[in-house]
Amino acid sequence: MHNQDTFTGPSFPLSNRMARAIWNLAWGLFFRSSPVWCHGWRRLMLRAFGARIGRGVHVYPAVRIWAPWNLEIGDESGIGNGVNLYAQDRIRIGRRVVISQGAHLCTGTHDYRVPGYPLRTHPIDVGDHAWVAAEVFIHPGVRIGTGTVIGARAVVTRDMPDWMICAGHPCAPLKPRPPLDDIRTHTHT
């Protein structure tokens, strides 16, 4: 439950803030300082903090994660340095997804129509085989379709359809992306 008035108190309960303090300490001491090639170590750390991480996932050391217990990453996905996974709510990243350097997936916002600007969170879902290019910003509650490419520096404010190349500010579908040959041979049912 979030606080309804951010002027009079914190948005999250003490237990959440304590867990994040412990995670931030572990992130600074053991995650951020780990060598680039230590993907297994970072997967282990994320799992220890409640993240659901698939096989062969590469999360680079300079990735910021607000609350790993709200994170799910599918098999063989890669999260580049400088990505900010602002997981105040659930972030689900499918399998074989690339989230490029500097992208920001933001699940939290504030309701400007209400005194005290209460926090509002909404999950983000990135479909299998998608690519979120460098420095993209994804708003709370957005779904990126399966196989979709989001062009560099796009600002995604609404859902993007499957198998499309999308870009812009605000982001919009531009043209179809042909399905990849290896998807037909590697898709799991």
Structure overview:
The longest helix is centred in the N-terminal third of the chain and has 18 residues, at 14-31. It is built from three helices and 19 strands. It has a single domain (14-177), classed as Hexapeptide repeat proteins (UDP N-Acetylglucosamine Acyltransferase, domain 1), CATH 2.160.10.10. Strand 10 (108-110) and strand 11 (119-121) form a beta hairpin. The relative contact order is 0.11. It has a seven-stranded mixed sheet. It has 189 residues and is α/β, with parallel strands linked by helices.
Features:
3 helices, alpha/beta, 189 residues, seven-stranded mixed sheet, 19 strands
What does this entry show, briefly?
With 189 residues, the chain is of the alpha/beta class.
* Order of strands in the sheet with most strands: 2-5-8-13-16-18-19
Q: Summarize the main sheet.
A: 7 strands, mixed
Helical content, roughly?
A: 10-25%
The CATH first-level class comes to: Mainly Beta
CATH topology: UDP N-Acetylglucosamine Acyltransferase, domain 1
Number of helices: 3
- Average pLDDT taken over every residue: 92
CATH architecture tag: 3 Solenoid
